[in-house]
Amino acid sequence: MSYTLPLVFAIDLGGTRCTRLAPGLDRSPVIPKAREAGKFSDFRRCDDRNSAGKVGLHPVVSKSQVVADARRYALTVVAKFRAVCVPDLALDSRAPASARHYTTSAERRRRVLNVTAMISAAIIVFFAIQGWLVNREIWWIPLLNLGCALVFLMIPLLCRFGELVAPLVFFAVAYAVVTVLCVYLGTGTGLQLYFVVAAAITVVVLGIDHLVLAAVLASIGAAAVILLEFLVPNDTGRQPPWAFQTSFVLTVISAWILLVATLWYALREIRRARLAMEAEYDRSERLLANILPTTIADRLKDPTRNIIADKYDDASILFADIAGYTKRASDTAPSDLVRFLDRLYTDLDALVDRHGLEKVKTSGDSYMVVSGVPHPREDHLQALACMALDMADAVADLRDPRGREVPLRIGLAAGPVVAGVVGARKFFYDVWGDAVNVASRMETTDVEGRIQVPQNVYERLKDKFLFEERGPVEVKGKGLMHTWYLVGRRDDEAVRNAVELQPVSGPTPRSA
Questions:
Q1: What is the predicted pLDDT for the residue at 71?
Q2: Which terms does the record give in the GO molecular function aspect (predicted)?
């Protein structure tokens, strides 16, 4: 029996990420199972003329992730001597935000390594010049130092060959050069101090992602210090005493400079990353606060939460709608319409914030506001009535992109409601209840430029607000309801005089 291995590789087709499989794999019985298990987000054929007859699977993963998963599952197939099959290409558990954070962390460590290499190169060049001036008979030591400096200067170029290539080359060359010089000159030069410095730098350069490797390199440095102390004499006699002491002083100073400079730069990079993360966190919090009330957002972030649903015995609801919106949308350019709605809703959002209310949602030209939810308040209905009057004033002078007036229909209602968060993805905060339905009907049965309320709202607000009686209105699902128009506050003398002079009248009742 022969066993074959499916060829799996990733390519880009016009910007579409696609995983290719060897011909014939589309007939494998594994594909339906993978589809049922939800391993692939979609199964489509790639219309690629250069790859006719091949099946294209479109998982929501990056090209590198697909290749890594394919290798892992291919090895599993070989190990188990299975027949031709499609390997499971599971989604990478690392979220896009985590992947970006990992990339940023790797770049930060690479910058720290480059700075360390540049400082080390400068120190080694200084020692090469110092050694040449002190004792030219040992000419190979300055050349060795210059060669080491050249390697350190090439460290930034080595980063392109992999995340670990550059740091491993750096530490290997540094360890080798320090060991050779200590053996030749003696441990009294203090060069073994660089092993201690390297032990501190390894963790900073490699990070916690490669903590084991950093620990191994640091252990090698510590072992080298111990072995040199026992196996190499303090002074081999190859330098005069004054040069020997000078080298020790310069070694201590340069090691201190290298350690402090590297740690300072690394801590500065960490601080910048922390500030960037805090800024992103604040931005995410602001975005979440624009979607959900703050208290609801805090509860939603609680991992122990199950269902967010609250009952409110008394709350008030407002619906507002642009009269004739469908006609306006049909004869207005899309960009102009969106710009107009954005300006309108921005002004209304400012009013909501000023009155301490909560905007629930917008749908096209429909605007919904709730008062007394999620924070109960005794004056919720009065606050919402003031909001309705201010909304009417805000659009009084507003014109659409074609210069037409923008009359609003506004409806209010009050009563018990239930509020909660719905959905696991693209969730939203909504309010339900009979009061919500009544407020919506008050808006749809209203006339342009008026604020319509039912009888119970009138009874609760008549002492502080002025009303005009409309009369009975046929409301879908409710039958006849006695309604009123909210026209102003009682403390507004001009409005009060106008109401007293005009007879109470209203349009012919109609049903929603």
A1: 55
A2: adenylate cyclase activity; ATP binding; guanylate cyclase activity; metal ion binding; peptide receptor activity
